[in-house]
Amino acid sequence: MAALNSIAIETVPTEVGAASLAAPTAAYLHIPFCRRRCFYCDFPISVVGDRPPVGDHFGTIAEYVELLCQEIQAVPLGQADAALQTVFFGGGTPSLLTVEQFEQIMAALRSRFELAAAAEISIEIDPNSFDQARLSGYLAAGVNRVSLGVQAFQTELLSACGRTHSRSDVDAAIEMIRQVGLTNFSLDLISGLPHQTMAQWQESLDIAISLAPMHLSVYDLTVEPGTSFDRWYEAGMQPLPTESTTAAMYRQAQQTLTQAGYQHYELSNYARPGFECRHNRTYWENRSYYGFGMGAASYWNDQRFTRPRKRRDYYQWVQEFQQTGQIDCSITPVAERLLDRLMLGLRLSEGLSLIALRAEFGNAAILRVLDCLEPHRQRGWVEQDDGRGIRLTDPEGFLYSNVVLSDLFKVLS
What would the pLDDT profile of 19-58 be if each residue is shown by its tens digit? Predict the structure, then answer.
């Protein structure tokens, strides 16, 4: 087989940076509230505790929703000229919103943007954070896809990572999803949890398959700085599974889920045919998107911008944004843009088009990329497609993607 850097790459006409220059057709809404912070979480959230009413908490959530809607309304004219194809409510725990608060945000979106008739509207929900009436209300307001944060099916593992729900709560949540007639739902699972065994991981995979979700997200635990796990554990030390065990868990998930008919379309994601998460593909394909809310990121005109991660700082930022309509950010340098494209696109099973990369970034830059990837091709982690595309192999290339991407970062930084 030819080495990667010996391949002739054709040139096709394309507009440089066209994907990021086009008006965004995706919007992410960050709902930062959680009853408590999970031990592995480093997301920008606000803990509101368990006191009812869930959607109010002395006005904290209501105040945030009002500011979020004001940010949406402040998007300058001329920047909202493409219909939104996807909307994603993430968090945090968006299912802590009352139906009325969710409707308020959707009304703000519809007043500012055109919403495509077939738009994918997703919301993350946690077991024990909603009831059937609330879920029905979300669907009536436009939701057509939910992502249920299960993480594990063993109550002892859920407790070990600080989750507020139990296995019985998961079963109740699944039953409510079925009762409202929603078939397009996703389940989140985490491998590498403290004390987690291979047998427990296989059990979680088998149970997940039996519930027949259209989509599964399977994440390997990462011990993030500043989290409870970071204070308690050292990566690779007990009670966390060893690196070889977590690698075996990744291979086990790939084999189990693909044999069950799920397509491994992205490093951490599996779907039935036709049920890939359209919103998240926006990120992996490096296309433009809006972000709204505390800590949310936007990408447009080759510019990335992240809002303040603390609630009061975000409130002040919204007030300033309302007055100026301007976001202080700079154009992403070409080398950084290429690195972004590689780090995101190589997460997808189809990989990246060498033709498009060469057209945008030039032959010299892509030859450097191919030269960097050649040792990984020889290891069986990278493969080529008749000189037109590059991708990571499944599962080994995906499993060692951090090694591949780290080498690319060294070469392109």
Answer: 666 789 999 999 999 999 999 999 999 998 876 555 555 5
Q: How far apart are the first and last CA of the chain?
A: 29
9 with 354: CB under 8 angstroms?
Answer: yes
Separation CA 383–CA 390 (nearest Å):
6
- The answer to the question of residue 42 being in a domain is yes
Indicate the number of domains in the chain.
Answer: 2
In a domain, 126, yes or no: yes
Q: Which residue in 385, 344, 341 sits closest to 361, CA to CA?
A: 341
Closest CA to 128 of 89, 175, 101, 166: 166
The neighbour count for residue 251, using CB atoms within 10 Å, is: 13
Query: DSSP 3-state helix, strand, coil percentages of the chain (rounded to 5)?
Result: 40, 20, 40
CATH number at residue 379: 1.10.10.920
Domain span holding position 59: 20-284
User: Within 10 A of 262 (CB to CB), how many other CB atoms are there?
Assistant: 24
Instruction: List pLDDT tens digits, range 85-143.
Output: 999 999 999 999 999 999 999 999 999 999 999 999 999 999 999 999 999 999 999 99
Residue 272 lies in a domain: yes
Amino acid at 151: Q
Buried-exposed string 137-175: b where 16+ CB fall within 10 A, e elsewhere:
bbbebbbbbbbbbbbbbbeebbebbebbbbbebbebbbe
| Residue found by looking up tokens 């091709």 in the block | 377
